[in-house]
Amino acid sequence: MIAITGATGQLGRHVIEWLVQAGKQQEIVALVRSPEKAASLGVDVREADYDRPDTLTRALAGVDVLLLISSNEIGQRAAQHRNVIAAAKAQGVRRIVYTSLLHADRSVLNLAEEHRDTEAVLRTSGLSYTILRNGWYTENYTDSLGSALEHGAVVGSAGNGRISSAMRKDYAEAAAKVLTHDGFDNKTLELAGDESWTLSDLAAEVSRQTGRDIPYRDLPEADYAAVLEQAGLPKPVADMIAHWDVQVAHDNALFDDQHGLSKLLGHPSTSLADAVKAALAHR
């Protein structure tokens, strides 16, 4: 059996879709905190709470391969991931596939520390593992295009920093392939999109597709954080996002030109143009 944590999240749902397309529907176990929210997945659903080890142990019974999608609770993730790994080991799970961060071993992003901790635990767990060091989701930017169009500009603090992103469906397809094929034991894969773009490139593509002049406005970190806070994000989250943008500008924290994702998939990752087209179509 193949189990997926965080199965009702955006990435988890995409992974399940790919696995179903691969004919694995009867082998999938969706691990979720609230089973009532997972009825639409069409697969076996089990309660699994990162903070309640007893639920994890029950949920992993009979599981052969586990996709551990990193928790979204920054600051608590290392402990939560340790709980999952311990339960997997106790239940005899053969292999864990973990969604880490691009270049986690050397990344300056503050997100990287918990990923480095989890990677270290996996490597000493005695279990087979595959670490998927995923780059940024293109949707991190295209999901806010409605606001950009409303206000007439793409805003950020990333300067001319290049972002090698891919869409969630691309990373999900990669995860599904690793989950269902041999040859990935004890490997760490750096996965990033084929296309590396700046926020000016994003603004230019939005302008091209909408026929409007939508410039990119580069803001000081504090000003961008204030914009995000005014848009409704909690201040700590707004501050983090703005700081990540600055690290993109100065440290190329989200750049990668090795094409590891497309090599794994066997086809190009989704282009920025196609991602913008999809986002505009769903506004």
UniProtKB/TrEMBL annotation:
- Annotated protein name in UniProt: Similar to nucleoside-diphosphate-sugar epimerases
Tell me the organism: Zymobacter palmae
Q: Where is the NAD(P)-binding domain?
A: 6-181
InterPro entries hit by this protein? NAD(P)-bd_dom, NAD(P)-bd_dom_sf, NmrA-type_oxidoreductase
